Amino acid sequence: MLDADFFRRWMTAATALVDREAERLTALDSPIGDADHGSNLQRGFTAVAATLEKEAPGTPGAVLTLAGRQLISTVGGASGPLYGTLLRRTGKALGDAAEVSAEQLAEALRTGVDAVRALGGAQPGDKTMVDALVPAVDALAESFAAARTAADEGARATTPLQARKGRASYLGERSIGHQDPGATSAALLFAALEEAAGE
Ligand code: ADP
Ligand code: MG
């Protein structure tokens, strides 16, 4: 079973990975965006880590809801509301249980990803974070490691796609040949989840 501590470890690991990969995320956001994705997420997750330490929420749902709210209020740009919605809706779906199973987490994350799709209007194949989130959640039924691999593959598979949502879509065909920054950071979220699970 996964308790609040597990979810705090997940967010701490995500913060560390975003810190480590911030420059790369911003570099990916240069040719097809406005070169701020790394700094956006760094600001957001730094705030998440600080708030979780200060408020010490006691349930899995409360950890994710609080983290999502922080992302929405601190990250400018498209990715803040989208990631914020992902975590907030996943947290809400977990309710106020003190511990949840991996299956419950997979189900809740599915709700969160559906909310991201509803908010942003992106389908798989539109070259967005959805291209990593959807296969990751599908693979979560198998294991945390499988979810991480699926997210990595989904992120890499955005390279040949033409963007149909977000800033990159303004470039039309010129968005082809670049990996999507948001799909890349979504894969980091699942790498952090695998780390938290100690797999
Ligand atoms: P901005 O584009 O406002 O500068 P970021 O650079 O932080 O915001 O995030 C860009 C990422 O957000 C993109 O790489 C893409 O994955 C994701 N994104 C943008 N618009 C959408 C959308 N409508 N649906 C899903 N993801 C999106
Ligand atoms: Mg950007």
From TrEMBL:
UniProt KW Protease keyword: no
Top enzyme class: transferase
Superkingdom classification of source: Bacteria
Record keywords: Kinase, Transferase
Catalytic activity, EC: 2.7.1.121
Family annotation (InterPro entries): DhaK_L_YcgS, DhaL_dom, DhaL_dom_sf, Dihydroxyacetone_Kinase
Lineage of producing organism: Bacteria, Bacillati, Actinomycetota, Actinomycetes, Kitasatosporales
GO MF annotation list: phosphoenolpyruvate-glycerone phosphotransferase activity
Residue ranges of every copy of the DhaL domain listed in the record: 5-195
Name of the protein: Dihydroxyacetone kinase subunit DhaL
Keyword Signal in record: no
